Amino acid sequence: MSSQPLAGNIRPLDVFSSIADDLRQVETAIEAALSTQETMLEEVSTHLLRSGGKRIRPALVILASRFPGVELKQVIDVAVAVELIHMATLVHDDVVDNADLRRGRPTVNALWNNQVSVLTGDYLFAKAFTLLADTGNNRVVRLMSEVVREMSQGELAQMASYFDVEQTEEDYYRRIARKTGYLIAEACRLGAVMAGVGEEQVQAVYDYGMGVGLSFQIADDLLDFFGDEETVGKPVCGDLKIGILTLPVIHGLAHAPRRAELRELILSRSIDDTAVARVKEILTESGSFDYARGKAREHIEKAVRALDHVPTLATRPALKTLAEFVINRKF
User: Fold this and answer.
1) Is 9 inside a domain boundary?
2) Under the GO molecular function aspect, what terms does this record hold (predicted)?
3) Buried-most residue among 70, 83, 126, 225 (CB within 10 A)?
4) Is residue 6 part of a domain?
5) Which pLDDT score is estimated for 124?
6) Are 244 and 158 spatial neighbours (Cβ–Cβ below 8 Å)?
7) Which residue segment(s) compose the domain that 30 sits in?
């Protein structure tokens, strides 16, 4: 692996200041896990590391483990595994979505090809599960296996729902729980499991993570409409153009005064910039964006209430601050 620093593009969050040293250990361990003598794999791995990321999921593993008397070493290994799984899903997602940009940088499939992307994602999954197996805790292996299964099902469900104007909010929530919620929730649960606390506390941090995960995805869906392309790191309104209907659109299809027009635009399966402008106008008029923001806030408030059940968790203030970041983020 190159000796040049790799973490320069990671955007640090103030909420993580209390675990900054731990996250530096995570970053070092990620680089070590991806170190290889295979030339192409080394190039791809270096590209992924240079692409950075917020490292929210490994941070959640650590934050959710901060109960009294916890040994950090195995928690770091689990945090690294969770991030490698997240990286693998992004590499595979970019193939599925035929995406050219991720975090403002070319995707693996854009720089190499789909075959390299698929195999790189498989490699990342294998490295992650090796780290989990090395903990000697079969439960963490099983939990993350279930997450990967759910994420795969969620991705397939999303593909099956492209331009489907009949889908409901229930369908949407089931899909985003699988695609986003479960991984964030399990990151929290794994931290508590590694801390060896009781099941009530494990469930509480899982519930926190699920609320954060659902809100994270709703916020992401809103950024798809209103985010700055340079800040978000990918084209705006990309989901809508390929037929992914998110919460504001589903709400508009059910409640907008101009819902027949909205339905016609989506069923055309040809959503250019002019059509996007019309969709945004319809959804603004119907209050669909405000509705989605309200739902994101509801999930965050529910997440924060779950922390009342873990009074001995030292990082509760940081987790509450992170929840606010998720709902107010610009990237």
Assistant:
1) no
2) metal ion binding; prenyltransferase activity
3) 83
4) no
5) 94
6) yes
7) 14-328
pLDDT in tens, 189-241: 999 999 999 999 999 999 999 999 999 999 999 999 997 776 665 677 889 99
Q: How many domains in the chain?
A: 1
Instruction: Tell me the per-residue pLDDT of 257-266, one tens digit each, with 9 for 90 and over.
Output: 999 999 999 9
The partner residues of 109 in beta bridges, in order of sequence, read: none
Residue 279 counted as domain residue: yes
**pLDDT at residue 232 in the model:** 60
Classify the phi-psi angles of 272: left when phi > 0, otherwise alpha if psi is within -120 to 50, otherwise beta.
Answer: beta
Express each pLDDT in 57-80 by its tens digit. Answer: 999 999 999 998 877 788 999 999
Residues 155, 93 contacting (CB under 8 angstroms): yes
Q: What is the DSSP string of 245-266?
A: --HHHHHHHHH-TTHHHHHHHH
Express as a percent the part of the chain with pLDDT over 90.
Answer: 73
**Whole-angstrom distance, CA of residue 95 vs CA of residue 113:** 9
Angle, CA of 93, 108 and 39, to the nearest 5°: 135
Looking at the domain assignment, is residue 233 inside a domain? yes
CA neighbor of 56 nearest in space, from 16, 2, 91, 92: 16
Report how far residue 266's alpha carbon sits from residue 128's, in angstroms, rounded to the nearest whole number: 39
